[in-house]
C-alpha cells in the first residue's frame, strides 16, 4: 500500500514529462539529446546557485521573511535565467527547428528540476505508513513547474534566438519573462511572508503557470506569423 | 583509425562503472527505513507472570493493528483492533466483556491521566475526583493482574497528541466506520520480540547492625530488637509501580528510625543495652519470600537473641490510626508488652492503635504479613500497618495508583515518632514514664524533610524485584544510606522462590500512523491515469492534429497491402 502511494506520486510528478515527450512531435525528431544536455546544464546551474547562496546569504534562525535576503535570493535566481540562455544558445543542437528546440530545452530543464528537488523526498517519505497530502501537492507543483519552464524557455527563445520580432510585443515578452523568472521568490514570499498553507501556494502556482503558458503560447504564435 | 574504437571502449567502461554505482546507491537507499509516524509514545506493558505454571497478565507484546475505541458498535469483531480506553471514562461493560470474560481483542491501550506519572511535579491532590480515579485504577489493576489475557495490554499517559487521535477514533466509531484495511484510520504499531522468561530473578536483602553497649565482664549475648520493612513493589505495570505508601512509607520510616538511633548509639553514654537490627527486605509481594530467606540465613544464636521484631508497612493508609497485627494471641505476655508500649505513646501523640490477631496456618503457604515469617521461626514479631485487613496475594503491593501525591506525610511522621519513642522507652527502661526522648525542636526530633525527600526518591523509582538488578543504583543508595547510620551493613542476594516466573519486555515505544485506505490509493491511481491520458490526448491533438491521435489506435494498413 505504501509503495502504491509512492508509485502514484511518482507518476504524478514525472509522468507529465514523459507524456509531453511522447505526445508532441519531439519524439519523432529525436530531441532526447537536447533534453539530456539541458539537464546537465541545470545541474551545473544548481551547483553554482548553491555556492552563491552559501557565500552571500546569512543563515536566519527563524522563518521570518527578510526582504533584503529575499532580494538576494531573487538575484541569485537569475542565475537560472543565465543557465537557460546558455542551454538555448550555446549548446550545439542537431538540426531541429526553433519550435522544438525551446520545448526540448524546457522539458529537460523541468525534468532535471523535478528529479533533483522531488525524487529524494518522495522516495524517503512516500513509502512510509503515514499518509500525508504533501507528496500529492508536490507532484502538482512539479506539473506547474513544467509549464513554467516551458513558458520561460519559449520566452527565452523569443528573446535571444528570434531576430525579427514585432516592436510592440518586445516589452511584453521581457515583462512576462521577468515575471516567470521571479516566480520562486514570489512563491516563497507567499509561504513565509504571508503565511499561506501549502495547498493554497500550489493552487496559486498552477493557476499562474497555466496563464503564463497560454500567454507565452500566444506570444510565440504571434511572433511566428511574420516569418511563416 | 583505432582511436575512435578505444575512445568508445573507454566510454563504455565509464558507463558500466556509472551504472554499477547507481545500482549500489539505489540498494543503499532502499535500506533506509525512517520512522515517520505522526505520534510516538512511550508505553508500559502489563506484567506477565506465572504462578506455579498458571499464566497471568498479558501474554503478548507486539501490536500491529488498527485502532478502535469503546464506542464501536456492540457485537462487532474486535479481534484485529486495538481498543484505546481512557481511565477517566472507563466503560465498565467493555472491561467486563473483554478482560474478565476473555473475548478476543487485538490489543488494549489504557490512557492514564498525567497525575499518575512518577516524574510529575509535586502538587497535593485533595480533589475528590482524583481519589475516585485512584480507586478506579486500583480496581482495574487488580482485575488485570489476576486475569490471563492473550492480547497485549499497554499503559500510556494522556497528552495532546493522544487526545486528538482518540477523539478522531471515537468520532469514526460513532459514525459507524471503524478502521480497517479498506477504510483507513489509525494504525498502532509496537515492535517487540516475544517476551522471554527472566532467568533467576534476584532479591537483595539489606541488613544493618547497630550493636548495643556490652557491660564489662558480661559475656552473655545482648538482646536484639529487629526493625524490618520490605522495599519492593508489584503492580500492573512494572515500569510504573513506585509504591509510595506500600511500602515506601515503611522504608522511609526505617531509615529515619535508624538515623535517630544512630545519634543515640554514637555516644557510649547513651548507647542502649540492646542491639538493633535493621532489615530492608525484598520479595514482599511474593509471600515475603525475601524475609524468609533472610531469616533462614541467620546464625542460630542471633535468631534466639531477638527479643522481638517490628515490621513496618503502609503507614499512610490508615484512615484513623494504625493497627498492630500479631500472630500470637493477645494474652501473650510479649504481645501485651509491645502493645502497651505503643498505646501509651500513641495516646500522647493523639494517635489510635488497634490490635489485630490473625492465626497462622502453617500448611497454607500464603504469608499475608511480614511478621508471620518471624513467627514461623518462633520469633516474637508484629506488623505495624495502616491497613486493617490482611491483604490478599498481590494486593496492596504498591501499584500504579500508589502515588506520592496520595501519601499523607504527617501520618508517616507520626508513625515514626510512635515506633521510635516506644522502642527507646523499652530500650532505656523508661516504660510508663512520661519522658519524651524524641521531642520536637530537640536535636533528636524526627526530621520531616528527611522523610519527605526519601519519599520523593522512592516515588520516582519503580521497584519490582525481578526487574531490579542486584547492583542497581537504587539498592546501592539504600545500602549507602543505611551504612551512614549503622555500624555494619550486609547485602544478601538470593533468588525468588520457584513458584513465581516473570517475563521481560516492560517498556516499549508505540507508533501511531494515520493510514489511507486501499480504496483511496486505487481512486488516486484512476484519477492520475485519466489525467495523464487526457494530457496525452490534448498534446497530440494540439501539436499533431486529431488525425494523428486516431491513427495511433489503428494498425497501419499499408503493410498488409504490400505483402499481398
From TrEMBL, chain A:
For this protein, the parts annotated as crossing the membrane are 39-59, 71-92, 168-190, 202-220
Q: Does the keyword Transmembrane helix apply?
A: yes
Q: Give the keywords, sorted.
A: Cell membrane, Endoplasmic reticulum, Membrane, Transmembrane, Transmembrane helix
InterPro entries per UniProt: TMEM147 (IPR019164)
One GO cellular component term noted in the UniProt record for this chain: endoplasmic reticulum membrane
Q: How does it sit in the membrane?
A: Multi-pass membrane protein
**Subcellular localization, as worded in the UniProt entry:** Cell membrane; Endoplasmic reticulum membrane
Keyword Transmembrane helix belongs to the record: yes
Q: Which family does it belong to?
A: Belongs to the TMEM147 family.
Query: What's the name of the protein?
Result: BOS complex subunit TMEM147
Q: Which organism is it from?
A: Helianthus annuus (Common sunflower)
TrEMBL record, chain B:
Q: Which Pfam families match?
A: Nicastrin (PF05450)
Which sequence ranges form a coiled-coil region, renumbered to this chain?
Answer: none
Q: Which InterPro entries match?
A: EF_Hand_1_Ca_BS, Nicalin
Q: Quick one: a GO biological-process term for this protein?
A: regulation of signal transduction
Q: Which UniProt keywords apply?
A: Endoplasmic reticulum, Glycoprotein, Membrane, Signal, Transmembrane, Transmembrane helix
Q: How does it sit in the membrane?
A: Single-pass membrane protein
Q: What is its main location?
A: endoplasmic reticulum
Which stretches are transmembrane? 522-546
The answer to keyword Endoplasmic reticulum applying to this record is yes
GO cellular component labels = endoplasmic reticulum membrane
Subcellular localization: Endoplasmic reticulum membrane
PROSITE patterns (UniProt xref): EF_HAND_1
> Of which family is this protein a member?
Belongs to the nicastrin family.
User: Which PANTHER family does the entry mention?
Assistant: NICALIN
Protein name as it appears in the record: Nicalin
